[in-house]
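[Q] Does anyone have a clean structure-token version of this?
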Amino acid sequence: MDQKTQLSLYETMVLSRTFEEAILHDYHADKTPQWDIGAGLIPGEMHLSAGQEPVAAGVCAHLNASDAITATHRPHHLAIAHGMDLKLLAAEIYGRETGLGHGRGGHMHLFDPATHFSCSGIIAEGYPPALGQAFSFKARNNGAIAVAVTGEGAANQGAFHESLNLAALWNLPVVFVVEDNDWAISVPRRASTAVASNAKRAEGYGMPGERVEDNSVEAVYEAAGKAVERARHGGGPSLIEVHTLRLWGHFEGDAQAYRNDMEGIAERDPIPRYAKELVSAGVLSDEMIASIAADAKSSVDAAIAFAKSSPIPSGSDVSKYVFA
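[A] Here you go.
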């Protein structure tokens, strides 16, 4: 892999983490009591993707704004890696009128026509819409593809299996991605499924399946490159499962008493681990690490300042943008 690509992957991961650390701080600010999800600067629940940045960086590096991506209730890393405007993203999370959904959707319901991005809090919900997008792209013969991302806990849902079946039957330009962070909310895979890897399930639907271990951004990049190339050139769907890492709780406020894998989790953080690899390879230096961090902070600070200075939707407009 060339050094420019390696630096780009690292920068994407740093930007995502910097953004989430900032909103994590504000999410807990001014909440009294702490469990009052309606209080504070950011309303609603909050699901953060820290630790899963290699999936977003590695997959989205192969996409452009014409490609569509559907994400889960834990979407920020994918939105940022796919090029979503940070200011519009922040404004939506802070519930402001200038946000992607005019502050009505919140962080689990991000819709951005500019980047063909959408997500939902409903498990496996993003798979069927991705088929519709891929069907449209195929009909138009415009070379665009769809990427559908879900978690390993959603792979037992009917929508998952129906989508794989139809994608293969219709030979659609879609890449299915499963983020295996070991915990389907609070349940490990072995307690909910008889299949060791969802990549094996792909074979049953007549498509290639690959599992990427070790949360390696470069391994994700390589696997995604093959799957995207296949989809763009009429080869049909593929599935990639990445054994990734959820550094923080299922949601903010999750005590994580069910987890038995917390010891040494900081050493598994993919960002400092990748930085160490790049420093050893002579691609990164301490000065470059500091500069990339400063650039990310500047971008995030500007986005959050925009959000905080934007108006809160008026109660008199509660029915605005509602349609049946």
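[Q] Thanks! Anything notable?
[A] The chain has ten helices and seven strands.
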